[in-house]
Amino acid sequence: MKLKKLQWIRKPEKIKITSSHSMSITTEHDSALVYTFDEDEKVNVTIKSNELSYGLGVIFNQDQGMMLIKKDNFLEKTTTFMGIKEVVKLNLVDENQFSFEKCDDEIVFSNGKYEIVRLKFKSIKESVSICILLFGKGSANISF
């Protein structure tokens, strides 16, 4: 994955590109980095921060989506569908290493080597956007 394919929502105040596959950021507010899959692909992400909460998310429609957020020593999975919200705590395997993979009409989220969730949704086949979510104030290093 190339950094030029990414788009910011609420861009951090400071972004330093450290290579074609990594960056360091400093922010004073919540931010999201969006990547859109147009074809089948797997992306590995490493996020390192002692100050920010972080995770991954996907939005299908206005009230349908899912987030995986690192909280202490676990992942909090929040799924929203037509106004119904489900929150589940999952064991955190690796606090820095995540991946997401688009395969036909499915998107797969993994933590370390372990699959956390597999979502199947018709619209994924054509295109799906994944967000790297950053919450709070502080710095982080992100690599792909």
Description:
It is built from no helices and 14 strands. It has strands spanning 6-9, 14-19, 22-27, 31-37, 41-48, 53-61, 64-71, 74-81, 84-91, 97-103, 106-111, 114-120, 128-135, 138-143. The strands form two sheets. A seven-stranded antiparallel beta sheet has the order 1-4-13-6-7-8-9, with no helix packed on it. Strands 2-3-14-5-10-11-12 form a seven-stranded antiparallel beta sheet, with no helix packed on it.
Q: Count of DSSP E strands?
A: 14
**What level of helicity do the residues show?**
under 10%
What is the CA-CA span between the terminal residues?
7 Å
Q: Structural class, please?
A: mainly beta
Query: Shape from CA axes?
Result: globular
User: Total number of helical segments?
Assistant: 0
Write the layout of secondary structure elements.
Blueprint: E1 6-9, E2 14-19, E3 22-27, E4 31-37, E5 41-48, E6 53-61, E7 64-71, E8 74-81, E9 84-91, E10 97-103, E11 106-111, E12 114-120, E13 128-135, E14 138-143
Antiparallel strand pairs: 1-4, 2-3, 3-14, 4-13, 5-10, 5-14, 6-7, 6-13, 7-8, 8-9, 10-11, 11-12
Short synopsis of the structure:
The protein has no helices and 14 strands. With 144 residues, the chain is an all-beta fold.
Brief descriptors of the model:
144 residues; mainly beta; seven-stranded antiparallel β-sheet; globular
